[in-house]
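User: What would this chain look like folded?
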Amino acid sequence: MARTETIILGGGIAATLPFTVGTLPVIVSTTPPSISDSVYKQSVPNGRSLSMGAGASFGTGDGQVAIGWNCTIGQAAIGQIAIGSNISMSIAGGGFPGAIAIGNNITFGTNTNDLIAIYCGTGALAPGAGTTGIVIGDSAGFPHQSVVIGTGGLTTTNGISRTTLVGYGIFCSSGAGSDNTIIGAQAQVGGQAECTVMGSNAGVQAGGGSNGAIAIGYAAGYNNANAGPSIIIGRFARNQSQNQMILLAPGINDASLPNNTAAFGGPTCAISTVVIGSGSLSASPLAGVTVMCTGGQGTDIAAGSLTLRAPVGTGQAAGGAVDLVSTLVSVVSSATPQTARVGLRVLAGNTNGESDVMIYDVQAAGLTRIMFGAADSGGVGFRQLIVPN
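Assistant: Here's the prediction, encoded as structure tokens.
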């Protein structure tokens, strides 16, 4: 048989409150309880709001929760949650559900809707009017429509928007534009928009025209604020001051590279072979691969040139060569890969009468340099091309 008892909790429930005691206490009273100085539950019709703690209070909206010292929720917005100390939420209107503030010294003003803040900073967090987004950590800045997660001096401002920052000590300056993605410890974007920076200490500096830049890798990024938009991938890959670069080159930091350069491989990750097609070997290889540069479009538009450039040496050392390699067809059927050999080599000659061209001589089983004959050796005004025995 159920029995009715009076239960006294800290702060004091009214002694006349009946409880039904079975397996668990169940309140059978239709009158909401009042726990003085500790918990207060709003009366009907908005009977789903709750405040707990000294100075905690809620407004006229439904589903509000204020827990902690001086946690106050004003106005009639629905479903606000404040947990911590010195939190003020004054979101106007009966809408804008779902704002959540957890921490210390947080102020949500008018129309700061759909906000989630879990704040552990020492200063005050005060998003601007109309701000939406998520902040978790110690960033006192709250960019609009953005996600900010991190600690350790993470710096951003209310003046940017649509930005994602994740990491320890990330920096996004007040001059930065919108739509940046910054991930990694102490990664940064200064004064630019639409950039993607991923990696510890990676960054895009303020100034210049590097909107849309991409820097991925430890300490990847820009050494110069005037560098234009580039794609930089690799550990310690850096762009000095060049514009529109593609660097897949760990460790590269080369100011001699011209603008509009794509570089593959760097001091810490050298690349000696580039394969284009369907892999180095395939049972169904492509019929061919075409390498071309941009052609003209329209009436009488001249095209540019495709240049294959050999690497340079220094001083009296020899420069590099450009080789065209062919393969030797086997005399018997087999699955053994054919032997490759250089069929044509372009290599600077150093002696009078030498050309820069060497061709493969099957009889000599090696490369032979093409020579120039004497004056008029091919007739008046012409010289013969001579292949030595």
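The radius of gyration is 37 Å. If you want, I can go into more detail on any region.
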